[in-house]
Amino acid sequence: MADADEYGAQVTKQGSLVRQLKKDGAEPEKIKAEVDKLKNMKGELEKLLKAQSASEPQLNRAAFDQMLVRKFFVVPSFEIHGGVAGLFDLGPPACGLKANILNMWREHFVLQENMLEMDCTNLTPHNVLKTSGHVDRFTDLMVKDDVTGVCARADKLLEDAIDHLIDNNPTMSQAEKDEHLLIQRQADAYKPEEIDVLLKKYDVKSPEGNPFGASFPFNLMFKTTIGPEGTSDAYLRPETAQGLFVNFKRLVEYNAGKLPFAAAQIGLGFRNEISPKGGLLRVREFCMAEIEHFCDPNDKAYPRFELVKDKVLTLFSSDNQLSTGKTEQMTIGEAVGKKMVDNETLGFFLARTQIFCERIGMDPARIRFRQHLKTEMAHYACDCWDLEVKTSYGWMECAGHADRSAYDLTVHAKATNTDLVATKMLSKPQTVEIAKIKLNRKQLGMVFKAEQRAVANAIDDLAQSWANFEPFAAKLEADGKAEIAGFEVTKDMFSYEKKNKTIHEVKYTPSVIEPSFGIGRILYSLLEHCFDIRENDEQRTFLKFKPVVAPIKVAVLALQKDKQFEPIISDLKASLMDLNLSSRIDDSTASLGKRYARADEVGIPFAITVDFDTVSSSTVTLRDRDTMQQIRAKISDIVGLLKALCTEKMVWEDVVAKYGLVAGADEEGEEGEKKPQGKTFIQSTGRGRFSRPTVV
Questions:
Q1: C-alpha–C-alpha distance, residues 625 and 543, integer Å
Q2: Is 93 exposed, middle or buried (0-12, 13-18, 19+ CB in 10 A)?
Q3: pTM to 2 decimals?
Q4: C-alpha span between 652 and 625 (Å, rounded)
Q5: What span, in angstroms and rounded, lies between the C-alpha atoms of 485 and 457?
Q6: Is-contact 579 657, C-beta < 8 A?
Q7: What is the pLDDT of residues 200-239, one digit of tens each?
Q8: Which segments carry the region annotation Disordered (predicted)?
Q9: Short-list 643, 651, 652, 519, CA closest to 582
Q10: Are strands 74-76 and 383-391 parallel, antiparallel or unpaired?
Q11: CB of 281 closer than 8 Å to CB of 521
């Protein structure tokens, strides 16, 4: 098989088949046959991918990792104490980079789309995450070494024990082997008492030879308690979204009842990963930026979709994943028109995400959107697409875009008996059939006490549509009792009659379309995409950050150590600060070329050099990191030029066209050092600033 993409599609299709067979409860023998086939196919695909990657340019991982640590972009947390897996600290340059990414994200999404931004608590009560499904969904069975206290996943221990048993018994009959493999395939489906029996059967012990205690559920969420009593269970949130969902009622009121609208939040999420790996790609504490767009389930058009409909995206549809294995390039307008992407709102956010990634400097050739297969999506989801970015680890999910239908608001409304609904005015009044209810509040109060109001609200809600109420009424008449919202009511608690009602508005539970961004993964991917090595010099690494996202915009340097340069450099620094341009002064004794290289390595896009011509003519050189070209301009112009370059009002080619290149600069960007004929000083005045520049 020569084409890795096509063969990869066959592997994806086979994996989807295996998941479906397990979901449908197929015969164990049939599942085994398909699993074995899948394993063989994955082996062949790995060979094809290795052959393919050998011909592609590779990231110099050693140089990249060394640069990240040496320049203090990222380091293990608590490093001097041995560190903790899955926890990392960002150093000054990475903090600046992250802040700029978040500022651009807020401007690109929150401000331009008039979103309502919130900042919700990290602590989330148990009942909230129980309602959302996280308490059940994030649980694995664990066992604990009673002597050392070390924990491990029970299902993985069982799987490894069976592998070890089979590998060390070459004469084992096929029938006996199949029996063990059947147990292995079901390892993650056993109940605690079942897996405990099997661990004893296979004599599973810890690496130190100690027996494990009974298995227990391990939740991937970090658990804590609220209050000194320790009785109110809570978790560090695994995502930011739930805070927005539970505040929907206030959000829609703040927005004057108008839909569609979006709420956004930037904050931390926490997941107690069992085996974190891949550096910043899988960590236990991470920054997320999430959007919850609320809209009418029957109208998912987006008012600004026309602005992005011609944006070309690389799309990897579920159909292509199961057939050709090839991506397609098409406009988002065409993709929505063909229903490859389900609706305009989802399509709009895909296009805006692509534009955002390009704005911060990611390589468009290494960006794609992959559609979830039907076997991957939750039962309530309509359509889901992941932003995937190509890194040295392969294609990495950096953002998800999911049409979650009305699931989230529905479950929270049901659990709290709260109306999480929106109202839509009708163009013409309509007549509908309802059930007019007369409650026996005395009887309701005697039976339900504090929950009387919840029961009354449930009856009233159901009565708004006779079609919905009629089956409930029929059961009530037949049995004398019926269940509603988890409560059993009887005929003597209320009476009803069928009536016509004229309505001018309808209430509905909004659908939610959720773009969710992993900022740590985006930051890491950007670092890889911007990492480069100077031609013919593997020791000179540099980062090609776009000026708008670079943590430090300008390096301010002196040609050499000289006291007459100091007031000029100080005034330049102050002038840059006045325009919110971050800068760094490097006044070390290293050669100018080495100082340029140091600035390049942390991604500083521009460097101002003060030399003896500055003293005599009030001019400085300005160097571009990527081309290593230089121009010379008046000090009064230079800060304005930099402001224009760093806000993308100008590009370097515009500057060169206006000022021309400095002659005689070598390939290192270092001019020959000019010796002064005599000592001349520029006197600084006032606050020590140069005259305020006009921004180009």
A1: 9
A2: buried
A3: 0.78
A4: 10
A5: 10
A6: no
A7: 999 999 888 999 999 988 878 999 999 999 889 999 999 9
A8: 667-696
A9: 643
A10: unpaired
A11: yes
